[in-house]
Amino acid sequence: MRVNAYIDGYNLYHAERKLNDNRLKWVNLRALCQHFCDEVDILDKVYYFTSFAYQPKGGIKDRHKIYIEDFLEDFGVETIFGRFNKFNGEIKEKETDIKLALQLYKDARDDKYDKAILLSADTDFIPAIKEVKELRKEVLLLLPPTHKLLANFGEVINQNITKDDLAAHLLPAKTKNGKEKMPKEYLSNIQSREQPEEITKNLKYSSWIPKEFTQCEKCKDYLDYERYEKVKPKD
């Protein structure tokens, strides 16, 4: 079954913030969507709908650009941008929801997929989902963490993304050409006081290695940095 994924970046980001764990913002969106595919599914397009922060440079905007341009693109995620508007001193994101709904419907109309994965908890997408189902396409609704299953989405199958789901599908710290570009802010939840044995248990299913470990002699007994996975401790 041909599958396309459509990700409401703004909705996901605010759910991630509520988890109070910056690491989880560094999620591999293609791998996360693949996790929810069936064995017979073939994941094709993954669209990420977002807007850069309303600031000239630095901080959140720079981290967001690194996330998109240095990582998501290399993992086959296509970003479609909206914009921020400032009106009467209030900043609001514009166009991303409309662009997502249009892309979801247009791809269904043009027979680009058999099943759509929609990652969002925004009920404004209900009309678009109904139109897609009228075209005899399946829709799997993935709800970001902290959101409850929604009965008002009708017959659409919806599943919750958990904190563990995010933690198991993180991006690496380095780009494909070997440059370390993972923002230090996304390592802020690593507790240096923990024993290496305990920390590595949490990294068993992760594809990234925090920079702190490369500077820790004790950790070298527990991790194989070349393969990015847990190895047996030395006797």
From TrEMBL:
CDD domains: PIN_NicB-like. It comes from Helicobacter macacae MIT 99-5501. This is NYN domain-containing protein. Residues 3-144 form the NYN domain. It comes from the Bacteria. InterPro entries: LabA, NYN. One of its GO terms (molecular function) is RNA nuclease activity.
